[in-house]
Amino acid sequence: MDRDCRPSRYSRRRVLAAGFLAFGAAPLLQACAGQAPPAPTPVPAPAAPPTPQPPIEVTRVVTQVVTQVVEKQVTQIVEVTKAVPVQVTVVAKEVSLWHIFSTIGDQEKAMKAVVAEFEKRNPGILVTNNEVQREDIKVLAPSAMRTSKAPDVVQYRVISDARVGYDAGLCMDLSDLWKQNNWEQEFGPLSANAKWKGKYWNIPWNIDSFPGYWYITEDWQKRGFKDPTDFTSLETILDTYKKDNVSPLVVANIEKWHMPYQIEYLILGIGGRKTWVGLTDGSVKWTDDLVRQSFAKAADWLKKGYFYPNMNAYKLEDIFPFWLSGKGALIPGGAWVVTAAESQQKHSDYFRPPTLSVDVENAVTASTEPFSISAKAEHPDEAKLLLSFMASKDAQQIFGDIALNPMSNGHVDVSHLPPAVQHNLKDVQKGPVVLGFDWDLPNPVYTQAWAGIQQLVGSPDDATITKVLTDIQKVATDFFKK
Question: Cα 248 from chain centroid?
């Protein structure tokens, strides 16, 4: 199940040769009968037709100036100039764009608007859209990128899968473009999402961030809670909810992806960003002590009854009524939670997951939809122009305004977004950031971890923790050996 960037408002001739009209001189009139006519004035030779020009882009009408030589009276020749409209039909250059925004409401309209603006600014280039379903593109994109007809600009996702393609040479190294355009300044901490093994491979587009624990603002303020800064203060809040017969944490895990984000919070809070990044590149083992402590903390919370019962039985949409009705207090999640609250005329906000101590470097979980250029792109120059436009504040502003999505370019005006979403973006722009669980970990690894975490939910004990972590590490070892 791909949970990224969910469909919330916040979380797709021929050339007609121009004939040149030339006019010869008419017969001269005689001045009087019986006299030999004067010698005719020489008439300029007809102008040669213009040399045919190679095709250019876009059908357009041009005006060709034609000079007509006309005789006046008997002895005087004058030139009359007139404009002749000539239609020149030409063939446009093309650049292909593969993206997933084909069936996602306002995102589809937003992408069409971005393309229209690019074509307006680049009248010699026509963008050909290939709108692909979000799950299909994961398989179709790398296959097409290996052919001689590779797409030019492609939404090669998710980033954990795309990294395999980066290593295999499927994508163009964009490091020079990043340097030329000073994109590190444009994207700030989110630049890390485009970087792999010291090189840049994509530009970040819209954001799906999991910044922390979301609450209903009215309830939070009524209880007088303050944002917790460590696990002790967080657990005090969780215990307070539990005493009031409110489930402190609400998670939907039937599709396996939601509880892993809670685990990621714990790994970041106990082991820090360094530990999490190490799991994504194989330099840290799942059986290491800091990772085990994180799983043990999750098991402890499960045994204390902090989670709404039967999380493995619910989809995300199933748990919103529990949260909105006051049966559950906190949802680990992203800005898509705001939409659920607004549907019931409620306000929401979040606090960031705490750390074990002030010495632990935390990070904001923020996945970004990536756009890359195929290494075998048919139109590499046009692809660079399109990608550079998409990275710009102007393009991302267009998409963000229509789709009401948080965007990656830090210069985009977000004042029209809800305060909680603006809060999220400020945290993202402060950084540091990491990708979400299934966006950051290699596919075989997160697949094994998903299954193991479901087991942990059912049996939160030491034996299960040992087995789950051992099984994940075995898969990780095999993957990183390759």
Answer: 33
Tens-place pLDDT, residues 253-277: 999 999 999 999 999 999 999 999 9
pLDDT at 26 over 50: no
Say which CATH class 210-365+436-481 falls into: alpha beta
Q: Report pLDDT for 102.
A: 78
- Cα distances from 195 to residues 100, 160, 437, in angstroms, run 22, 12, 17
The distance of Cα 179 from the centroid of its chain, to the nearest Å, equals: 20
* CATH 3.40.190.10 intervals, the chain: 93-209+369-421, 210-365+436-481
The backbone torsions φ and ψ at residue 359, rounded to the nearest 5 degrees and listed phi first, read -80, -10
Question: Residues 6 or more apart from 75 whose CB is under 8 A from it?
Answer: 38, 41
User: What does each C-alpha distance from 152 to 18, 156, 332, 367, 376 come to in angstroms?
Assistant: 34, 11, 37, 23, 8
Cβ atoms within 10 Å of 31's Cβ, excluding its own:
11
Element containing residue 473 per DSSP (H, E): helix 462-481
Amino acid identity, position 232: T
Question: pLDDT (tens digit, 9 = 90+) per residue, 166-223?
Answer: 999 999 999 999 999 999 999 999 999 999 999 999 999 999 999 999 999 999 999 9
Query: Has this prediction a pTM greater than 0.85?
Result: no
Dihedral over Cα of 299, 300, 305, 308: its sign: negative
How far apart (Å, rounded) are the C-alpha atoms in residues 36 and 13?
55
Of the ranges 31-45, 208-222, 277-291, 456-470, which one carries the lowest mean pLDDT score? 31-45
Measured distance CA(323)–CA(176) in Å, rounded? 47
CATH for the stretch 93-209+369-421: 3.40.190.10
The Cα–Cα gap between 389 and 383 comes to: 10
Q: What is the number of residues in the chain?
A: 482
Given pLDDT bands bounded at 50, 70 and 90, which one contains residue 105? confident
- What is the separation of C-alpha 238 from the centre of its chain, rounded to a whole number of angstroms? 35
For the cut 90, the answer to whether the pLDDT of residue 32 exceeds it is: no
